Input
Amino acid sequence: MAAEQFTVKSDPELWTRLNMDVERFKNMPPMLTQAYTSIFLSQKNRPEGMSYFNDCVANIHTGRIDELMAAKDEGKPVVGTFCVYVPEELVVAAGGICVGLCGGAQGSIADAEKILPRNICPMVKSAFGFKVGGICPYFQAVDFVYGETTCDAKKKTWELLDAYVPTHVMEIPQRKGARDKVLWLEEVKDFKAAVEKITGNRTGLDEISGAIRLINDKRRALQRLNTLRHHNPAPISGLDMLLIEQIAFYDEPGRFAGKVNELCDELEKRIKSGSAVAPATTPRIMVSGTPMALPNWKLHNIIEKSGAIVVNEESCIGTRYYKDLIDESSTTVESQLERLTERYMQIDCSCFTPNDERMSQVVKEYRESGAQGIIDYCLQFCHTYNIEAVKLRQVCEKEGIPFLAIESDYSPEDVGQLQTRVEAFIEQIQG
Ligand code: SF4
Ligand code: SF4
Output
C-alpha cells in the first residue's frame, strides 16, 4: 500500500453512539495514521499479505467496531479481557466475542493518573485511562470485562474499574502444584458458569469443541508464521510480526487465521525465491518479557531502525499466547475443561513462582529462532518480570547468550537513551 493511500478511518457518529469523548478522540486516527505510515509503511519489500493487516489498522476504530456492534445486535456479547490466562474458548463457546483491552498508548496515562497512583505499570494505567477518559471504542463496546489476579496492579485496579464497566475477576493461582491445578480447574468451571449466566447461552460439548478448534486454528496459524519468520534471511520484519500478534487479540479469529495462513503461503514462496526484508548478515535479536499492547511498537522500532531484526517475541503478545494448544479429542465437557486447564497451566508468566520452565522456554526459543542475542523488555513498575530478569540474565550468562535488560514505559522520553543501549548491544553481538 502506498504511504499516501493509508488512513486510519474516523466515524464520529459511531463514537457518539458509543458515548465516547469524540472531541478528544477525533485526534487519535490522524496520529495513528502518521505513526503507522512512518513506522510500518516505510519498510522495504514488505510481503503483499500485509495489506490485510494494514486494513485492520485502518479500520481499527470503525470497521471492526461496526462488526462488534452488529454482533451485539444479534445478541452476541462482547467480552473484554486483559490477560492470556482468561480462556477465550469459553467466551466463544457461549456465542460471545473476546477482545483484548490491554493498553499500549501514552495518550490515556494522564487520565488514569488522575485516579491511580503514578508508580504502577503503564499497561494497566493505559487501559484504565482509556475507559475513564472515554477514548477507546473497544472499551465502550464491551458488555462486560473479565480481569484476573495475576499481579497486584491489575487485581486492585479491577476493583476501581467495576465502577465504569461490569468487571468480573478470575483467581489465577501463583504456583503450579497439584492443589493449584485443582483451584484453577474450579476457576475455569466458575468462569464457564458466569459467562453462561451473563450471556444466557448454555455451552455443551459441541459448542466447546467448535470454540477450541477455532482458537487452536488461530494459534496454529501464528505458530506457522513464527516458524517461517525464523528463516535467515528473514522473509518478514519483526515489526510486522508484532503487529500481527497484536491484531490477534481483536480480529475475528477464523478470518484472522485464514489471512495469516495466506501470508504464510506467500512467505514460503519468498523463502524459496530468496526474497527477504533484510540481508542474511543482519544482526538477529529475540525480545523477551512483558507484553507490548497496541500501539506499543517502541522497542521493535528502535531495534529495526538501528539495523537489526527482531526474530522472536517471548511474550504474551507473542509465543506465550500461541505456543500451546488444547487437546481436541475430548468426548465429555468435564474432559474438555480439564484439557483446557492443562493448556492454560502451561503459560509461564512471571506471576508464578517458581517459574523455571520460562527459563528453559526462553533458551529453546532463542535457539529455534537463530537469534544472536536477547533483549529482555520490562514495563516500568512490573516487579515480577523485572525481578525475573535477574534469573534470566544468569541463565543467559551460563548458556553464553548475549543479554540486555531494559525497563521502559510508553513515553518518548527515553528513546534516545534506549537507542544508544540497543546500538551498543548490536555492536556487541556482531563481535
Ligand atoms: S504477562 Fe502475565 S499477567 Fe500479563 S497477560 Fe501475560 S499471563 Fe497475563
Ligand atoms: S506487565 Fe507486569 S505489572 Fe503490567 S500488567 Fe503485566 S504482570 Fe502486571
User: Anything to note?
Assistant: Residues 3-430 form one domain. DSSP finds 20 helices and eight strands in the chain.
